[in-house]
Design goal:
The protein is mostly beta strands and 151 residues long. The protein is 9% helix and 45% strand. The structure holds copper (II) ion.
């Protein structure tokens, strides 16, 4: 059915032009935060970032409800990759119309010093900054350490 929607000549031309599609912009979706099991330990934030018409680079994701934040990548380390570690990233390239996915076991945002006012089933705002493009804010669902991912 989807193909049929785009089978006419006019919609095809619009698709090629691209830029006039309302969803064709830098945006962040599916944001959520998992709090640490131990209060005071860092929380992890996950989200999806969609690139707009121009390539850019995500340089930070932070929150007023956290003291500081870092972009991290989970990775296997040690003999045989038996251990899981993480590495700090100074940014992530986002190609035009590309997608950056932050998910458990992969890229994540480490949030340090999360306000004690932030509780499971609550919300917090994440602020994204890019090398090129307007900053973005996205509302993140907050879950407890043992809770299922909301997305
Ligand atoms: Cu981390």
């Amino acid at each position: 059915m989807r193909l049929r929607l785009f089978s006419g000549a006019v919609p095809l031309v619009l698709l090629v032009l691209g830029g006039c599609h309302p969803a064709d912009r830098l945006r962040a979706t599916h944001a959520w935060v998992r709090l640490a099991a131990v209060p005071g330990n860092p929380a992890a934030a996950y989200l999806t970032v969609q690139g707009g018409p121009d390539a850019t680079r995500l340089v930070s994701v932070d929150s007023e409800a956290a003291g500081s934040s870092e972009l991290h990548q989970s990775m296997k380390t040690g003999p045989g990759g038996a251990m899981t570690g993480m590495q700090r990233l100074d940014g992530l390239d986002l190609p035009a119309h590309g997608t950056l996915v932050f998910a458990p076991g992969g890229n994540h945002v480490m949030l340090f010093g999360v306000s004690p006012a932030i509780k499971p089933d609550g919300h917090m705002t994440l602020a994204l900054r890019f090398a090129k493009g307007q900053p973005l804010q996205v509302d993140a669902i907050v879950v407890g350490a043992g809770d299922a991912a909301p997305y």
